[in-house]
């Protein structure tokens, strides 16, 4: 979903489209890595002094309900990322620099034995480890 589609859908669902909300949508859609609510809040606060953490959090909930972003846990912290609707992905996530490397993935092509009468609607698959850059830097990856 691009920026205009998202703003349109929010408008149709009865949300007011303020400058602040537009800026928030831009930030979220342009993140190249998973982010936390605090990071987003701090980024927003640079432009919109007085923006509250509650507002940021509420908007993240809305984006989640609209299936624009999804959450996952890393280092005991909830992270958000934009959902790729065209092609669901498997994500390789570096535990050091938090770089996320998406890879095409089709669960139908994987040898799995799904539970009987299970109807799959959505899936989310994350692989945690260390990227090439971080593995080289120090070879410390046994912790
Ligand atoms: Zn890394």
TrEMBL record:
> Per its UniProt record, what InterPro entries does this chain match?
FUR, Fur_C, WH-like_DNA-bd_sf, WH_DNA-bd_sf
Query: One Pfam annotation, family name?
Result: FUR
Give yes or no: UniProt keyword Chloroplast.
no
Is Protein transport among this UniProt entry's keywords? no
- Sorted UniProt keywords: DNA-binding, Repressor, Transcription, Transcription regulation, Zinc
| Organism superkingdom | Bacteria
Which family does the record claim for this protein? Belongs to the Fur family.
Protein name in the entry:
Fur family transcriptional regulator
Q: Which organism is it from?
A: Cohnella cellulosilytica
Lineage of the organism: Bacteria, Bacillati, Bacillota, Bacilli, Bacillales
């Amino acid at each position: 979903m691009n920026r205009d589609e998202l703003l349109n859908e929010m408008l149709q669902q009865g949300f007011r489209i303020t400058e602040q909300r537009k800026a928030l949508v831009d930030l979220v859609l342009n993140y190249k890595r998973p982010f936390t609510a605090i990071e987003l809040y701090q980024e927003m606060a640079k432009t919109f002094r007085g923006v509250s953490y509650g507002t940021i959090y509420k908007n993240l909930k809305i984006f989640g309900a609209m299936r624009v972003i999804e959450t996952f846990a890393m280092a005991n912290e909830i992270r958000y990322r934009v959902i790729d609707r065209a092609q669901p992905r498997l994500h390789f996530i570096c535990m050091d620099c938090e770089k996320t490397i998406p890879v095409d993935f089709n669960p139908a092509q994987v040898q799995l034995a799904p539970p009987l009468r299970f109807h799959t609607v959505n899936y989310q698959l994350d692989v945690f480890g260390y990227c090439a850059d971080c593995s080289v830097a120090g070879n410390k990856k046994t912790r």
